[in-house]
Write a structure and sequence with these properties.
Elements lengths: L25 H49 L4 H4 L4 H8 L3 H18 L3 E5 L5 E4 L17 H7 L4 E6 L6 E11 L2 E10 L2 H9 L3 E5 L5 E4 L7 E2 L5 H10 L8 E2 L4 E4 L4 E6 L8 E9 L6 E7 L1 H102 L1 H28 L2 H29 L8 E2 H11 L1 H6 L3 E4 L5 E2 L3 H19 L6 E9 L2 E8 L29 H11 L3 E5 L6 E8 L5 H7 L1
Parallel strand pairs: 8-9, 15-17
Antiparallel strand pairs: 1-2, 1-5, 3-4, 4-5, 6-7, 6-13, 10-11, 11-12, 12-13, 14-16, 17-18, 18-20, 19-20
Helix pairs in contact: 1-8, 3-4, 8-14, 9-10, 11-13, 13-14
Membrane topology: Multi-pass membrane protein
GO molecular function: ATP binding; phosphorelay sensor kinase activity
Subcellular location: Cell inner membrane
Amino acid sequence: MQSPHPRPPALPPSLTVNPRLTPPVHVPLLVLLLMLGCGVVAYHLSERAGLRALADNGERQLELHAHTLASAISIHAYLPSLLELETGVGRLLLEPSERRRAQVNAYLEGLNQRSGSRAVYLLDRSGRVVATSNWRDADSFQGDDLSFRPYFQDAIQGKPGRFYGLDSITGEPGYYLSHGLRRAGEIIGVAVVKIRLDPLEERWQRAQLEAYVSDGNGIVILSSDPARRFKSVQPLDAERRTQLASSLQYHWTRFEELQPLRRQRLSADTELLSLPSAASAQPVSYLAQTRRLADPPWDFTLLSPVRDVRSAATSHGLLAAVAVALLAFLLIAWNERRKTLATRLAAREALEEANNQLERRIAERTEHLRASNERLKAQIRERRQAEESLRKTQDDLIQAGKLAVIGQMSTSIAHELNQPLAALRTLSGNTVRFLARGDSATASSNLQTINELVDHMGRITASLRAFARRSDDRGEAALDKAVDAALFLLRPRLERTPLTIHRTCADARLAIDQTRLEQILVNLIVNAIDALSAQSDRQLWLDGRVEDGHYRLAVRDNGPGIPPALRSQLFEPFFTTKPGEQGLGLGLTLSASLAAAAGGSLTAQHPDDGGTLFELKLPLLPPSPAESRRDA
């Protein structure tokens, strides 16, 4: 049998190659230079990639902890304005007495315990503390004159007070939130809430996170390392030091500068720093990333040690050098071996070249098809994951919008429930006395009234529970039922800000979830109420019509309208024209998203005769078989 690969014949001695047994002298030098160059390049590439990964992780950490810091402050922002609802507070400020002070002290003590703040206290117009939650403590604020504090000076002028500082007596740090209390349009006092931000530092220490926060003066006020606290991140001249010391904002702190030993700027908010270490004599290098917070205007700086990145880069450089040396050794050995086998394999290579080329082409084509298939599968998986993530994010944002609306209505709901509760307490006491007298008729009437009040409270809580539950994009909704539910939820707001509602929209069955339609209507009516709050003539029109298989509902008010410069931003997330912290800027964005998810739209129009008109377009549901037979 003949072999498929015949052995090539021996070549003449003149065609053979004598391999060189020893390499030239310059080859080892070239190998050493190549090892050094590849090691340095691998080190720098690895360091750059490591710093990039460290920066990406730092951005996520910055986002998380900056949001945590802002949330720790925002959850207490409503407390100062809450005191405006307590009638005893206004009476104490207008007509102070020891009995009223004791009542307000007890109220503030309970409010402070429930909210988890450090202290809640009340100042009169002169800046003196007239009531405080810590009236039982030896270091109580009772009677202190705090008129020199910036948060009092801002609040007495009608502006929200925000201030970080150390207590002028105890030196305890805290963040102060203040609000001017009004009676008949005039500020009669100032409510102040003090919160502690120390738990954030403890959380950073437990997470082994190195970070600090500097305020507008460039002073570190929060730090995972206590040695960096109250140091200046920027140079301070003598005049600036004197101003900060005289303000007593930082008590009697001696300001030292937090000066790095070495600094390399990488971008606008990222740099490499070398700071002295108390644990070792060698300085520690960090990747410093800074983010400016919106409220309060502080700088949050995250310090990520680069020691591990540089250790890994050194290892990669050494591995690259070793790999180059091994590769060079293999290449030299292979080259020497190739010289001895070149003449013997020439014939076989010529015969096998065609077969090898064909096999390579087949393998390349197969690999290309396999890679294309894998990329297509990966794209399909990524798109499905992105759609699922988008849907979950949208659902969470919709739920957040609902809870934000309920949070804004919490004061009104509490007032709505307090009135029946007070009536229940009075009626139940009277019923006991009437039963004792034997007057069963009057007692029965009181019990009937109590039953009606309980039903009324149940309808309020049931409406809130239905409004807050999660829902789907698709569903079926009755327009009249949604309008009635929205007006019922907003009844406390409508009682405080009465307006005339012109309701000319006919009932219709719409292709949207009932709860989501109610949420859209609540957002649109709340915006109209807020827009009309400053005028006496308040008109709201609800007008609907059927057009091309859709129902168009127009919600129009006669308010001041939207300024032309702001109209293009109406449906942007977190954009709001409401003053202070009255709005989150999510209402219109969520409403437009809900309408689009149901196959409809939400647009804004600006009539020439004033006011604002929002048109909600939603698809109609086909009539049910029972309705079709009834129409026939």
